[in-house]
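Lab notebook page, bench 4
Experiment: in silico fold of construct C2
Operator: M.H.
Input chain length: 271 residues
Purpose: comparison with the prior construct
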Amino acid sequence: MTPIAVTIAGSDSGGGAGTAGDLKTFSALGVYGACVLTALTAQNTKGISAIQDVQADFVAAQMDAVFSDLAVGAVKIGMLAQASVIHAVAAGLERWGQASVVLDPVLIASSGDRLLAPEALDILKRVLIPRALVLTPNLPEAAALLGGAPAANETAMREQARALLALGARTVVLKGGHAEGADSVDLFVDRDRTVALRSGRIDSRHTHGTGCALSAAIAAGLAKGMNVEAAVRTAKDYVHAAIAAAGTLGIGAGAGPVHHFHAIWPAKPPG
């Protein structure tokens, strides 16, 4: 049977992140992708110029349409924006018995635009994080969820990852891309252990959609039947290669997207 994953997130009219980037990631990894839109954004590689929220009842209707028909193996959740949408998504997951949930707590875009209403943060923590099989915050997002400062070293990252586990997620992947150093270190943390996943840091401005691609790739792995650690390791390798190849795309005048199809497209575009 064809593996299926669903992304519940906002759109990206520039095509690099959000549902657009997630669907590209699913396709690149051999998974059929469906989507539930939670918000519409007008954006490109230079930033976001407008956001239009999707009403919570329509989010619920999309979820019912997808889950009533498709044999969904995993769910990736990204931008939710409003408290009412968070409640609708949590209720939909309960209604359709979805347990393989990868939650990317999207709070602020890389451009600096706020993507989650401040009053919705506590609801995200109370209502949705306990439903997550995997929680994938970056360092600023982890700090916001915990009400502190971003971790400045690996020891602080380990402490924050454990604190995030206490919010109810079964696994935390704390992304260290915002830290300094020659290596980019992500921490894989569950109830039993902490594993540091290291890769060489790539000097590139073309990193738009990195977080979306990682969480979507984890969901793709789960949809294909991988265990959580295998899905996370495969996803990290995929994103690392997507960043390394991003410079060959030549998309946009700002922070270009990662190369979702680096393993499929020619190494360099023709011409």
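Observations: The mean pLDDT is 92. The longest helix spans residues 228-244.
Next step: discuss at group meeting.
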